[in-house]
Amino acid sequence: MLDELDAVAAAPDHHIVLFEDDRVRVLETLIRPGEETAVHTHVWSGVLYVIGWSACIRTDEHGTVMMDSVRDGVSPAPGTAIAAAPIPPHALRNVGTQDIHLILTEFKT
Fold this sequence. Notes:
Blueprint: H1 7-10, E1 15-20, E2 24-31, E3 40-42, E4 46-52, E5 56-60, E6 65-68, H2 69-72, E7 81-84, E8 87-94, E9 100-107
Antiparallel strand pairs: 1-2, 2-9, 3-8, 4-7, 4-9, 5-6, 5-8
C-alpha cells in the first residue's frame, strides 16, 4: 500500500497514473500558472520527460524553499529527459506563465 503522501494520493489534482505494473509507474503531472500542489512525495527514482516548463518554487512540508527554478537556473527545455531522484515531502508552485507538464517514469525496484 502506498504512503498517504504519495503523489497520486496526496496531490491527485496534479498527478495521474498513465501506466503501472509491479516494476514501473508512469505519472503525468500538470501544474498550471498560479497553481500549487499539495505536499507529497516521490519515493522512487526514475526519468522525467519535460513536455512544458515554467518558473517554479519547490518547498518542503514546512514551507522552506528547496528549489527556486529562477534562482537555481533550472529551466529544462521541452523534449528533455532528466534523471529524477526520489523527493521527500514537498509542494511545487508554478510561479511562471506557462504550464508545467511532465511525464515521470518511476522505477519501483
